[in-house]
Amino acid sequence: KPRLYSGMQPSAESLQIGNYIGALLNWKSLQQTHDAFFSIVDLHAITVAQEPSKLRENTRGTAAQYIAAGIDPSASTLYVQSHVPAHAQLAWVLNTITGFGEASRMTQFKDKSARHGADATTVGLFAYPTLMAADILLYQTEVVPVGEDQRQHVELTRDLALRFNSRFGDTFTIPEVAIVKETAKIYDLQNPVSKMSKSAESHAGVIWLLDEPGVTRKKIMRAVTDAHGGVVFDRENKPGVANLLTIYSVLASRTIESLETEYAGRGYGDLKKGLVEVVLGTFDPIRERVAELLGDPAELDRVLASNAARADAVANETLATVYDRVGFLPRR
Ligand code: ATP
Ligand code: MG
Question: Which reaction does it catalyse (predicted)?
Fold first, then answer.
């Protein structure tokens, strides 16, 4: 089976619907045909300030959400990034072959550092992409399923792998990015031209997996649309409606065209009401399962520990080769 790697940051208590649609849904089907590694990337999460006790809770919570959404921790390797030290170790080596200018061109860094201000911008945030490259390359990954926002990072990963291989000899598999075009980017409901994110300043336009149903309903009913009227998919002129239609279509497994037909001549309120039902129908059972899983944290920790051991073994093999290739003296 081809090797697959992906991850999410435990940067909030709950995942948001973009993580579910852009990543988790895709992972769920890919895990059947791939040897999948799914990580809860806590080393990445601390590139912006996290409250320590919350981070610990959010890490368990993110694991529970992966499992509740259908990731099977006995078929896939689901583990916490900081449990496998090789990630940080390989990232350091990759930092030394990454150009400063090259890293400066990463749009996520530009966006996040602009949002947090120069004083809160850290070397860690700058080095996020080389850590992500280490995540992927450690597992000799062939496929990286991510949302559109991560494409640039996977491209950098490929460049670094090629560079390392040509300088030190064949070491890394060159990974391919796998993006589902239609669902690659879910937008904020209050600002439908900007990506929905866990770390958005305002939560008004973010649909959280773990929100109470009443909250989800309110947020969807208040989603920004436009003054033209008409349920038509037009990303350019009607980004709000296009976003709602995208979410609806994926969660209900229906084509956009069939939704346009159903809602032809009706108001946005009807579309939103329909969407509320579909979103709650998907998230209600997931929320219940998450509560069950978090009711037994010791069992969850055991699952994460055995998965980390599996990841550790694979990662250390690659790291040993890298250390040898760059000329580190082995500890005997
Ligand atoms: P943060 O704001 O902390 O960066 P995030 O919501 O962007 O959080 P990540 O943990 O950075 O989430 O990303 C996890 C996965 O979810 C990645 O594969 C990413 O591409 C995908 N993803 C994130 N936001 C969206 C979105 N709005 N639409 C589609 N996919 C998304
Ligand atoms: Mg992100």
Answer: tRNA(Trp) + L-tryptophan + ATP = L-tryptophyl-tRNA(Trp) + AMP + diphosphate + H(+)
